């Protein structure tokens, strides 16, 4: 019974009364990207865009995006919860409401937002709700955390396109990906940043559906 209660708690977002209190100050993190040595928190070149994506364990997700041509810098962190400045252990408790995510900063002249989303859809299974593969909990939910109305419109069209692609492939499952405005983004601890570059044999966790996400006509991936 205890294990069942624990599982149910991890699959349900906490209320404000249940959420951990967090702290006023940010937790320590890295200043620079371990691979490309660019500053994680900026400044970023003028005209570049950012988006925050949740697709399961953030270690493998971050590596996927820092390898894409046109991506300037990536970082991992926590978003869409209630607890200010959470730690990894607090997020894993299921009592912050936060998702494990990767922040992607990119040059829209070199890779389109649609191209970023194509990699997002094809790198995980967005139909699994509060889990991704063997990783279970609200912190592993699929999510797109947008910075403006234009990104939201593109993200919603992209979700509908991928839902259609799943249906054509005989996959009746419904996409559970949340698309919401990006709230405060909290950088994860330094050891999580670019984890798979520091630990090449570490756990990745990325899967996928095996279904390709078609780009709109005339939109280049890069």
Automatic annotation (TrEMBL):
GO molecular function per UniProt: L-methionine:thioredoxin-disulfide S-oxidoreductase activity; peptide-methionine (S)-S-oxide reductase activity
Catalytic activity: [thioredoxin]-disulfide + L-methionine + H2O = L-methionine (S)-S-oxide + [thioredoxin]-dithiol; L-methionyl-[protein] + [thioredoxin]-disulfide + H2O = L-methionyl-(S)-S-oxide-[protein] + [thioredoxin]-dithiol
Free-text function comment from the UniProt entry: Has an important function as a repair enzyme for proteins that have been inactivated by oxidation. Catalyzes the reversible oxidation-reduction of methionine sulfoxide in proteins to methionine.
Keywords: Oxidoreductase
GO BP, sorted A to Z: cellular response to oxidative stress
Active site feature: 57
UniProt protein name: Peptide methionine sulfoxide reductase MsrA
Recorded superkingdom: Bacteria
InterPro entries: Met_Sox_Rdtase_MsrA_dom (IPR002569), Met_Sox_Rdtase_MsrA_sf (IPR036509), MsrA_MetSO_reductase (IPR050162)
Cellular component, GO, one term: cytoplasm
Similarity comment: family membership: Belongs to the MsrA Met sulfoxide reductase family.
Enzyme class: oxidoreductase
